[in-house]
Amino acid sequence: METLPFSSVDGYGRRAQRLNLRRFLSVLCVGLLWGCGGGDEATPPPAVEEKPLLTGGEVKPRPKVVKKSNTKRRSTSKPTRRRKKPPGIPITPMPEEEFASSGNADEFEIADEPFAVGESFSVNRQEQPLSSTQYAPANTGASDGTSHESRVRLPKGFAAVPGTGISEEGWPQRIVSLQDEAEMVLIPAGLFTRGVDGGPEDAGPQHQVQLDSYYIDLHEVTFAQYRRYRRDLSANNQRLPKELDSDADGALPATGVRWGEAGQYARWAGKELPTEAEWEKAARGNVPYAYPWGDGKPIWHRPRELSQIDPVESFRGDRSPFGVMDLAGNAREWCQDWYSAQSYQMALDQSNAATLLNPPGPRAAVGSKDRTVRVVRGSEEGWEIWRRSGIPMGTRSPTIGFRCVWRLGQGESGREDKQEEKQQQRMRKKGGF
């Protein structure tokens, strides 16, 4: 064998080293480019575990990496799946001191329907009355106040309350009497059941009454309104009625007023005292409930007694299906009618019909020893709104007040029917106006 010189061997060795270095660098560069996804992303992907060499001397190829452009860095840990939360249900907290129960929470029931426009509502009548107050929308024919405009013209001295809706006949659901700034509630025309069977003699028999539409004051006339009335009379040099409690809170019902003085106030404001039928329908609605809120027992947010005098609208539960306040409690209220224990039966006998149409009440206080007795309603035993009382019209009582009505037929003509006006004059003469 020929022996190569040392220098040749050394040259071959150096060339082999350079060749191996080049191969090493080439493999390194290819590996870097392969692992970095071709250099499209600045951040390398997570390392892939190398598999051991196979027995055949071949290395199992790496899995192909799919290049993705403009993607965010992936987490090496498996993301945790979060369950979607159901949409939140807004919960309106119940105002404080709204209602207080007797502890029979299982006897309460909530109506599913939303409130109607103008805060109108009615009460659910149960086969077995629950010991609670239950509300549902009243079928008053109210719109949302935007679907159509009022088709009637209110007389001078009255204005519609914006946003309270319009009745099917085109009348505003709420109006304001500009003379005394009293808000008034529309009571739509229709039938209602008056009286009760099996109760006190003067409250029966139960019967049907048909009334035309009218407005009634939202609450009793207050001391503040009555003082305004006296100031107006004084400014016009007119005779003044007796001054009431000058220190009383203006938000309290004006009590201590005689029947005749209440009527004078009503006419000053362009209104009248309600008939007994008008008062009961406003309190009872179209269904013969025992209370304005339904047939359930009274529930007050604080102690309340009969003839207890509070600022008007203090007890939110004392609200009729039409939205009229303080008809079960607070001040007792004068009505237009003469009182008679047999007035219902006499009216039915005289009409020869099962339904009475706009009954004015008896012509005199028949059957009473005191012939000056007028009807007083509200704040009666058990808070029941079909109960009646008769009080001499000259009485000044710290528990008796009043509210007023305005009849739509009166407004359409601009003046009362002459025959009705004559009857009113005769009644005023008998009553000592």
Task: Tell me the layout of helices and strands.
Elements: H1 6-35, E1 158-160, E2 174-177, E3 182-187, E4 190-194, E5 207-211, E6 214-217, H2 223-235, H3 259-268, H4 276-284, E7 332-338, H5 343-351, E8 355-357, E9 373-377, E10 389-392, E11 400-401, E12 405-407, H6 408-413, H7 418-431
Parallel strand pairs: 5-8, 7-11
Antiparallel strand pairs: 1-2, 2-3, 3-6, 4-5, 6-12, 7-9, 9-10
Biased composition (Basic and acidic residues): 413-424
Pfam families: FGE-sulfatase
Protein name: Serine/threonine-protein kinase pkn1
> What separation lies between the terminal Cα atoms?
158 Å
CATH superfamily membership, which one?
paralog of FGE (formylglycine-generating enzyme)
Note the overall shape.
Answer: elongated
| Spatial order of strands in the largest sheet | 1-2-3-6-12
For this structure, what is the CATH class?
Alpha Beta
Radius of gyration computed on alpha carbons: 43 Å
Task: Fill in the keyword field for this structure.
433 residues, alpha+beta, paralog of FGE (formylglycine-generating enzyme), 5-stranded antiparallel beta sheet, 4-stranded mixed beta sheet, elongated, SUMF_dom, SUMF_sf
